[in-house]
Amino acid sequence: MFIVYDEGPSNNVFPHDFIYASWSGPVVKQHYTGVGSYSHYSYLATLEKNWAFTCLVKNNDCNASPMTEFFP
C-alpha cells in the first residue's frame, strides 16, 4: 500500500513544498526512513521497474527515480 498526503500550502514551491508518503505492508523494510528525493512520478517508476513495464508517461516517469530503497 502506498499512501501520499499532498496538502502543502500553495505558496510553497519545489524544492520547499515537501509531501509525506508511506509504503506499508509485509514486503516493505520496517522502521526505515528513505534518503532519496522523489517526485509523484517515482511511484509509477517503482511499479514499472518492479513488474518490468514500459514507461506510461514517457517524459515524466521514464526519468523519475524508482523508490526501490524501501524494499529488501
Descriptors:
two-stranded antiparallel sheet, globular, 1 helix
What does this structure look like?
- A two-stranded antiparallel ribbon has the order 1-2.
- It has one helix spanning 41-51, and strands spanning 2-5, 20-23.
- It is globular and about 35 Å long.
- It has 72 residues and is an alpha+beta fold.
- The chain is built from one helix and two strands.
- 8% of the residues are buried.
- The model has no long low-confidence stretch (mean pLDDT 85).
Tell the overall outline: globular
Strand order of the largest sheet: 1-2
Percent helix? 10-25%
Per DSSP E runs of 2 or more residues, the count of β-strands stands at: 2
Global structural class: alpha+beta
Largest β sheet strand count, sense and barrel closure: 2 strands, antiparallel
Gyration radius over CA? 13 Å
What is the H/E order?
A: EEH
Instruction: Return residue spans where pLDDT drops below 50 for at least 5 consecutive residues.
Output: none
What value does the average pLDDT take? 85
Short description:
The protein has 72 residues and is of the alpha+beta class. The protein has one helix and two strands, in the order ββα.
